Known about the structure:
- It contains 20 helices and 14 strands.
- The protein is α+β, with helices and mostly antiparallel strands.
- It folds into 3 domains: 2-67, Orthogonal Bundle (Arc Repressor Mutant, subunit A); 76-237, Beta-Lactamase; 242-417, Beta-Lactamase.
- Strands 3-6-7-8-4-5 form a 6-stranded antiparallel β-sheet.
- Strand 4 (126-131) and strand 5 form a beta hairpin.
- Helix 2 (9-16) packs across helix 3.
Amino acid sequence: MAAADNITLQDAAQSLGKSVAALSIQIKALEDIAGQPLFERAVRGKRSKLTDAGKLYYSRLQSSLNNLSPADLNRSLPTEVIELDFNREIDNQSPKLKKFWQDLSSIDFDLRNDPDKAYALKNVSLSFREENGQWIYHHIGRRNDYAEYKGWDYCRNAIGKVAMLRQPTGLFHPYDWTVTKNYNKVFVTGEPSLSRVQGWLDDANNTYRHVTYHRIVVRVASKDGPLIMVKGLIQNFDLPEPSLRPKLISLDVEQVESYSPFLARFYKAWQKNPLWNSSEIRALHPELMMCRPLRPHYETLVAAHIGERHNATLYFGNAWRETAIGVSISDRDIWGEFDEKINDGYYSTLNTGIPSFELLRAAYPHKSGRIMHAVYFRLMLRLFLSDGSPVLVNMLEQHGMEETSAAATVLAQKLLSRLSP
């Protein structure tokens, strides 16, 4: 685009911080992809002109850039495909992926051997055929993750269209290029591929999310000739929409027993005696988290204790627990992207001494590696140590955990209905 926008090739190279030779090589590579000249060759120092094909290419590229949103331009997470050792890792995959592989193996990777099983396999996967060096969507099953994520209307319209172009340029979807570039290897060698894919992908609502999934790519025989069959399973995805960010509802702590008898035990023990050395409170030691101010005025809180039966330990795992003890609760490397309004509750309770009881819904990375939506109650109390210094105690009771936002929303609605007047 710089070559088209500037008067001369020298001006374009200077604007990009490149040499004229380097820019010329890039233009030649682009023309090789297009299969025709994009620029009319000009005498040195004269203005470069676009050919008719170049003008068409430029207009489409300009349109693509104009449609980019700030979120598109600011994304720093690239699409990445990590190849895994198939024989070693296939047994560690989800039951769905393993069943797909076992069913394919049972018919010797030939869809003609068992029509019923072939129909079931095609229904949960994608298949591509090769035409003139390009991959064409041959079939998209209604029950595969891609159809559920992108929507069936999109998938139905994609059948018969190119799934990949031979080089990644500004006109081509970088996601499609990256995730399909190993199809040729599988097609030629017949060796299956198992990989972990992560990258930005727009869903049925045209909202981009950073998805992570495992997939199997395998060559199969069919009545239409050899095909590439792909089975992917989305394991987690980030949910950047504001409506899906952490939500918090403050509740009346005096009603804690009606919502959570488990947390009510802590509240009753605190009411009897807010000192840490009271026997009632110390008996609950394995199930609570204790945070201490590191500096005067409670500027920094660190996790001084996290019980082995505390809900966060059960959720994130003991390895996280051992790492988090002694770390500031504002350290995002340990605690994740914790919403500010959720974090504020710590300081409010510690400063005022007023107990806090809340219902929360938020997405966190689970110890399994998946992003999960958790719905839970939280009780926070201020205690005093034997030397008179205050500490914050946090107790949680989880009421549900779902991998998909839709299911988590239903779960939250059911729980929130209990709180309606």
